């Protein structure tokens, strides 16, 4: 997880992608730029969410809405220095601890899917933190790539 300037909670590396790259390539690039990690990405997305994006507000998108796609990345290299190191600190946490650090509910839903992906275990429910997840796992035919 990564920090953002002036905040005490954490987010996942994320961002838009260029027309000449796939969503997976963009996810790897964002992980490198924001968290300073390289790895092997699983090209099957864990899920996708629509959320508000500050950068998309006022650009004609529905109320600043953005569709994000989440992928699992097996980290194989952790850099000492990376492009956005001054803006984003990197924090390694246990899966169970990460739920409390998440800024948004959709991130906890993504962690639920990641838990199933890793361990094929039932979804973790953390009382009082959020409502039980309501999500849809996309098939490859349903994938829509939208830049945020």
Automatic annotation (TrEMBL):
Q: Does the keyword DNA-binding apply?
A: no
Cofactors needed by this protein, per the record, are: Mg(2+)
What keywords would UniProt list here? Hydrolase, Magnesium, Metal-binding
Q: Which InterPro entries match?
A: DDP-like_NUDIX, NUDIX_hydrolase-like_dom_sf, NUDIX_hydrolase_CS, NUDIX_hydrolase_dom
Pfam families recorded for this chain?
A: NUDIX (PF00293)
Q: Origin, by domain of life? A: Eukaryota
UniProt entry tagged with the keyword DNA repair: no
What cellular component GO annotations does this protein have?
Answer: cytoplasm; nucleus
Which Gene Ontology molecular function entries are recorded, alphabetically? metal ion binding; pyrophosphatase activity
Q: Which family does it belong to?
A: Belongs to the Nudix hydrolase family.
Q: What is the official name of this protein in its record? A: Uncharacterized protein
């Amino acid at each position: 997880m990564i920090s953002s300037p002036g905040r005490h909670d954490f987010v996942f590396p994320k961002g838009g992608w260029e027309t000449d790259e796939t969503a997976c390539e963009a996810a790897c690039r964002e992980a490198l730029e924001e968290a300073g990690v390289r790895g092997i990405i699983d090209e099957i997305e864990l899920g996708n969410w629509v959320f508000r994006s500050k950068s998309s507000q006022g650009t004609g998108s529905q109320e600043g809405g953005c569709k994000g796609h989440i992928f699992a990345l097996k980290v194989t290299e952790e850099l000492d220095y990376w492009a956005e190191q001054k803006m984003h600190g990197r924090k390694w946490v246990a899966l169970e601890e990460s739920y409390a650090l998440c800024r948004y509910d959709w991130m906890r839903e993504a962690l639920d899917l990641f838990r199933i992906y890793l361990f094929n275990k039932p979804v973790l429910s953390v009382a009082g933190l959020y409502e039980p997840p309501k999500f849809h796992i996309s098939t490859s035919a349903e994938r829509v790539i939208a830049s945020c």
